[in-house]
Amino acid sequence: MTAQSRSFAREQGAMLLLVVLVGLNLRPFITGPGPVMEMIRTGTGLSYVGMSLLTLLPFLLMGVGAFVSPGLQARWGTRRGLLTALALLMLGSALRGIAGNGVTLLFTALLCGMGVAFVQSVFPGIIKQQFAGRMAMVTGLYSAMIMGGGAFGAQLTPWLAGSEHHWQQALAWLALPVALAWWCARKVLAEQGGKRPEPGLAKRLLARPRTWQLMLCFGFVNAGYSTMVTWLAPYYQQLGWTAASSAGLVSVMAVAQAVSAVGITLLARGQDRRPWLWLTLLLQFTGFAGLLLQPELAPWLWVAVCGAGLGGNFSMSLVTALDHLPQPQQAGVLTALMQGGGFLLAALGPLAVSLLLECTGTFAAGWTLHLGLVSVVLLTTLRFNPRRYAQAMASA
């Protein structure tokens, strides 16, 4: 191996480490509060609708931020923007250690959401640029780390909170791995900020109906994810489960997501991603139907099946969006826009379920809602024929 090839291998290894560390930190601040929700409600006095804002606000910011991020990236550059975003996520997580009321806690959710919005808007483009020959595989790894981070947050917080209900300190500890990701980004991206997106590209992409179709599909599926991380643990606590046991269900879901996110990108062959998208949607439909009809018959199975569908769909949606345009910068902006509109829709999932819960007293209407959303996505993805990508994105 030549010195040049060794240097390239080290750079690729460092970038893969950054992919892992960044991905791991994009969901714990969302999944962490769910298993200790009753502790938080007791300590802050937040209602169920107020608790849903801990998920809704970050997802709204992820949506709005994805539209703003291409412009910020063009102005600041990738490295500076990424370091600032990770610093916001670290600060928001750390401040939860002193969050004694609902207003302060919601403010931390805003800080974390702002940081994550920029990171996940620009990162798929970084992956396509740095791993052109292995884009699908590395995207699967990145998606798996996001889901694995969700499992980490859900499982860790009730353990750290302990019997004395120290939920503030438990949530604040999640700032530590963010600091590690920030340090790695500072080292790895020191001299490789990547090309900046061309001005006006986002506006041109928004004129394409395909961009809005991608947003719809991504949003409806991730509404299922945001609902699950917010309400799955309380749902089973309502059925008599303990906080620790219900947190285990969230972790099972997240692990299934992670395995599926990697596995489906390794199995998928050819340019037509639709059969794999349909498989993930069928898994989601099965999981939501089980939660609705027979929640206590096989809860671990329903959660794992649904998680596999959600995780696999997340990674395949990113890959499908990146496939639409050949240039990494253009594909990155399209993916950012898909996430922007998608996360705005996803933010409404927990709120819709909370309103249905307060109206009906049960979660049945919420699970029925998600069965309908999955069906809409299935019909929309019929249009995603790779032979027509160039036509769908013409003049972008």
From TrEMBL:
<protein>
    <submittedName>
        <fullName>Cyanate transporter</fullName>
    </submittedName>
</protein>
<feature type="transmembrane region" description="Helical">
    <location>
        <begin position="167"/>
        <end position="185"/>
    </location>
</feature>
<dbReference type="InterPro" id="IPR052524">
    <property type="entry name" value="MFS_Cyanate_Porter"/>
</dbReference>
<keyword id="KW-0472">Membrane</keyword>
<feature type="transmembrane region" description="Helical">
    <location>
        <begin position="105"/>
        <end position="127"/>
    </location>
</feature>
<feature type="transmembrane region" description="Helical">
    <location>
        <begin position="12"/>
        <end position="30"/>
    </location>
</feature>
<dbReference type="InterPro" id="IPR036259">
    <property type="entry name" value="MFS_trans_sf"/>
</dbReference>
<feature type="transmembrane region" description="Helical">
    <location>
        <begin position="363"/>
        <end position="384"/>
    </location>
</feature>
<dbReference type="Pfam" id="PF07690">
    <property type="entry name" value="MFS_1"/>
</dbReference>
<dbReference type="InterPro" id="IPR020846">
    <property type="entry name" value="MFS_dom"/>
</dbReference>
<feature type="domain" description="Major facilitator superfamily (MFS) profile">
    <location>
        <begin position="11"/>
        <end position="389"/>
    </location>
</feature>
<dbReference type="GO" id="GO:0022857">
    <property type="term" value="F:transmembrane transporter activity"/>
</dbReference>
<feature type="transmembrane region" description="Helical">
    <location>
        <begin position="81"/>
        <end position="99"/>
    </location>
</feature>
<dbReference type="InterPro" id="IPR011701">
    <property type="entry name" value="MFS"/>
</dbReference>
<feature type="transmembrane region" description="Helical">
    <location>
        <begin position="334"/>
        <end position="357"/>
    </location>
</feature>
<feature type="transmembrane region" description="Helical">
    <location>
        <begin position="50"/>
        <end position="69"/>
    </location>
</feature>
<feature type="transmembrane region" description="Helical">
    <location>
        <begin position="212"/>
        <end position="233"/>
    </location>
</feature>
<keyword id="KW-0812">Transmembrane</keyword>
<keyword id="KW-1133">Transmembrane helix</keyword>
<feature type="transmembrane region" description="Helical">
    <location>
        <begin position="300"/>
        <end position="322"/>
    </location>
</feature>
<feature type="transmembrane region" description="Helical">
    <location>
        <begin position="239"/>
        <end position="264"/>
    </location>
</feature>
<feature type="transmembrane region" description="Helical">
    <location>
        <begin position="139"/>
        <end position="161"/>
    </location>
</feature>
<feature type="transmembrane region" description="Helical">
    <location>
        <begin position="276"/>
        <end position="294"/>
    </location>
</feature>
